[in-house]
Write a structure and sequence with these properties.
Layout: E1 2-5, E2 8-11, E3 17-21, H1 30-42, E4 47-52, H2 55-58, H3 79-86, H4 93-103, E5 106-111, H5 114-122, E6 128-130, H6 138-145, E7 151-154, H7 160-173, E8 178-183, H8 198-206, E9 209-214, H9 220-227, E10 232-236, H10 254-271, E11 291-294, E12 309-312, H11 323-326, E13 330-331, E14 346-347, H12 349-353
């Protein structure tokens, strides 16, 4: 199972595809958005993702209880107020795509309604992401799928049936390159509720490339996901958590993001293949395995016993598994203490009787 974005192979036999999510951490400043893109690129990210919506396309400007956030990072704020602060202005988008081309990094976005899809198509976006909160919006999924571009769908909050419906909608819309990101939509997410083994089941159940959208505060969960076969890792990035911002509290700073990229790459490389062959780096150490040695001087014709033969390091002598067969035999020649035993140094007692 694999797909590609901007020519980059993603899936089996490929390094994990690391996506830096900018979200609202630009704090309303285009220059900061550029700096975030530069930081993500320097940290080794494969792609940068933004979000394409306006407060009015997501919600109503309304302060009724339904539209006020209760608890969490954004307690007491209205949805409209939060999205107005966090959104990436549409008139920035051409400049952001141009900046990505300048940096040589892929940029794509999460559209939140049909108008956003049309707008992103006009900018020749190479792929699309469906956010966790939108994975039940089947008409939107079908519309994105109709672009024919690769799709990534986050599964946060969705049960197995809802994920199945989202996959079916993507297929119905014409999507042939699909990735599901296991996701817990907690901000931040405690690692112990991440249940990243689910991404293995997603891969087997739906026959798609899988990965992780990670909202934990460390890199360990993402590394564990890669060890389980995650082909994609998405993580928020910020210049500094102390600068605040809508998503800064659960985002990685640039040096942390670099660590994430490096550790995910190492974890992927460490997976390797199923093999019992000796590694090249092991070969010089073969001499330090145990083998059979004379641990006392042995006269010609003397019997070999536990007192004069032992299994010790280094490994130049006979293998330890031959010790039971060696004991009780007699030396063909005198053997000095510290000599590695060879089979031609001993003879069977029965041979002497013959």
């Amino acid at each position: 199972m694999s797909f590609s974005i901007s020519g980059r192979h993603i899936g089996e036999n490929a390094a994990p595809y690391i996506i830096a999510e900018l979200s609202g951490n630009h704090n309303g400043e285009l220059g900061r958005a550029f700096a975030l893109m530069e930081a993500a690129c320097a940290a080794g990210a494969d792609a940068i993702k933004i979000q394409t919506y306006t407060a009015d396309t997501l919600t109503l400007d309304c302060d009724k209880p339904d539209f006020v956030i209760h608890g969490g990072l954004w307690d007491g704020r209205t949805l409209h107020e939060l999205y107005q602060e966090a959104h990436t202005p549409w008139d920035w988008h051409p400049a952001l795509f141009s900046k990505a081309r300048e940096l040589g990094i892929t940029l794509f976005s999460t559209p939140f309604d049909f108008t956003a899809v049309e707008f992103l198509e006009s900018l020749d976006a190479p792929a699309y992401k469906i956010a966790s909160f939108e994975n039940i919006d089947l008409p939107l999924i079908e519309r994105v799928a109709a672009t024919g571009k690769p799709m990534i769908i986050s599964t946060g909050m969705a049960n197995a049936e809802e994920i199945g419906e989202a996959v079916a909608a993507a297929r119905k819309g014409g999507c042939t390159e699909l990735c599901l990101l296991h996701c817990i939509s907690g901000y931040p997410t405690p690692p112990e509720v991440s249940n990243i083994r689910t991404l293995v089941d997603l891969r087997e159940r739906f026959g798609v490339v899988t990965g992780l959208s990670d909202h934990t505060l460390s890199t360990a969960t993402a590394v564990a996901a890669v060890a389980l076969g995650a082909s994609v890792v998405e993580k928020h990035i910020t210049l500094a958590r102390a600068d605040s911002g809508p998503d800064a509290a659960f985002s990685l700073e640039p040096q942390e993001f670099r660590k994430l990229v490096e550790e995910c790459r190492i974890a992927n490389a460490a997976l390797g293949v199923v093999t019992y062959a000796q590694a090249e780096c092991e070969k010089p150490n073969m001499v330090f395995r145990r083998s059979l040695y004379a641990v006392a001087d042995i006269a010609e014709g003397e019997q070999l016993t536990h007192l004069n033969v032992r299994s010790i390091r280094p490994g130049y002598g006979l293998p330890p598994k031959l010790l039971p067969a060696i004991l009780g035999q007699r030396a063909v020649c005198s053997i000095l203490r510290g000599t590695a035993l060879r089979i031609d140094m001993v003879r069977n007692i029965d041979e002497e009787r013959d």
